[in-house]
Amino acid sequence: MLNQMATLDRVFHALSDPSRRLMVERLSLGPASVSELARPLSMSLAAVVQHVQVLEASGLVRSQKVGRTRTCSIQPAVMRSAEQWMADRRTSWERKLDRLGDYLAGTADNPDTPAKERQ
Questions:
Q1: Which pLDDT value is given to residue 115?
Q2: Cβ pair 38, 76 in contact under 8 A
Q3: Where are the domains of the chain?
Q4: How far is the C-alpha of 59 from the C-alpha of 95, rounded, in Å?
């Protein structure tokens, strides 16, 4: 459980930066070189490499160097684990809000419920 939470921490940290999110967006279309990832960004190639390293440390991206070209690809399983964590939280909150809605509907329909309980 702690290992899973540490992985999620790294994923959310990696996705917290707009440039890295843009890189992930581009990689969702298919593999790309670091130079291709850098093209739409207004930063140095060295800065892009640092962002790629953060994405790799999170597990979201894997890169492979062939000759002088480093090609990056997205790792969908890691993204799915973050999606699953968010879906689980959403489901939990939806259940709680449904129960609250049922409770409030029940107290509004029952005029014998003391006003203190209806607030």
A1: 56
A2: no
A3: 2-75, 78-118
A4: 31
d(CA 23, CA 40): 9
98/20: higher pLDDT: 20
The pTM of the full predicted model, rounded to 2 decimals, is 0.74
In this predicted structure, the answer to whether residue 34 has a pLDDT above a threshold of 60 is yes
Token pair recorded at residue 101? 């809605």
Paired tokens of 26:
């581009």
Asked whether the beta carbons of 11 and 60 are under 8 A apart, the reply is yes
Distance CA 18, CA 10 (A): 15
CATH architecture of 2-75: Orthogonal Bundle (1.10)
> CA 104 to CA 117: how far, in whole Å?
10
Convert the pLDDT of each residue in 37-61 to its tens digit. Answer: 999 999 999 999 999 999 999 999 9
Using the Cα atoms of residue 92, residue 6, residue 15 and residue 28 in order, give the sign of their dihedral. Answer: negative
Look at residue 9 and give its three-state secondary structure.
helix
